[in-house]
Amino acid sequence: MTYFQSLSVAGFAATAISYGPGRMGFGLFVPEFRSAFSMSTSQIGFVSSLGFFGFFLGLLVAQGLLMRRGPQVPVLSGLIAATLGMSVVAVAQNVFVLAVGVFFAASSAGFAWTPFNDAVHRKVRDVDRPRALSEISTGTSVGIAAAGLAALAMVMMGLSWRLCWTGFAVTSALALLANHAALRDVERDPNGIPEKGWRELLRGGALPLFVIAFVYGITSAVYISFAADQMLDRGGVPGLPAAATPGLVFVVYGLFGLAGLFTGRVKTAIGLPWLLRFVMLAGALSLALAAILPDSWAGLVPSAGLQGVHVMMTSAVLAVWSERLFPALPSLSFTAALLATAAGSVLGPAIAGVAADAIGTGATFLGVALLPAATAVLLRDRHASDRPLRVPAAMHG
Predict the structure, then answer these.
(1) 318 versus 369: which is more confidently predicted?
(2) What is the DSSP letter of 187?
(3) Could you write out the three-class secondary structure of 189-233?
(4) Overall pTM > 0.85
């Protein structure tokens, strides 16, 4: 088996677990957690933010491990965290234990992606790299859709949410074994990153990248944390049991997220500035529909679909844009962009949870939707340059 094949399969499995049930699972099962642990909206927001804080820390730890030990150690660490966290959630008896499990499960997403960018960059031929990275990133959408199908099956078959999380943990353990085999021969980059590498990212020309990433983090995390519960609370959609609503939301979310595979073609057709405006407006409209039409098919499907497009296309843009701005620091610059996303993801649900208790979830969604909408309106073509910034040629990531 070639590195192209082994890394594509292993990366697909790792991102499917970590970005599917790992990062999205709490929001998907919020109705069950609210019922089982008598959680308030504020508590839901804080537990969700704790999970995204795990994602933030995972990114930092993974970057250090990648430079010192190579891709295998951070990826396996993330899948161990996912397996442990999902197991803890499956047996949790109170909110504190649930929060611990969510923290470890969500942290896995911070470990999974950038190490594969590094491995593919060094081990896969130039001609095969775009396809390998696309297949790895596709794991995210498929993992989200699969988690949604598991939630639907839970409702339709009368299964316990604890059984679903046990299944997630077992699947994560299998992905751990597959990644151990695929990455054991991938050594660390012998050149590493200079000590001043992080400092080189602090340039004015990179500010739009980090602003877009931060706003994206807030928008996506608020949706992930509260949208499914909001739609369920309003009775779901006609013709489907109300309890099946969260599963349906995330299935649609994951399937429409496959649009991320076409990000490069869209960028070529309309340019980076208009692509950024499009993904920001998609995020804003997604939240607005969840607020205005939460109990209809005309609201749920476009809302979840637009959010899937928003998340997957924006993440693809961040991966390419960061590398274009800092071609000598590809993995480090992408990590920095994801850290900005994670920072927004930590703040968004905590603040939105408090706001929802005070003014209602619908009004909160409309308020949050103003942020990506304003970003799209204020964005100027000069802000979306992807020409390389001046970084010493000897540096690389």
Answers:
(1) 369
(2) P
(3) CCCCCCCCHHHHCCCHHHHHHHHHHHHHHHHHHHHHHHHHHHHHH
(4) yes
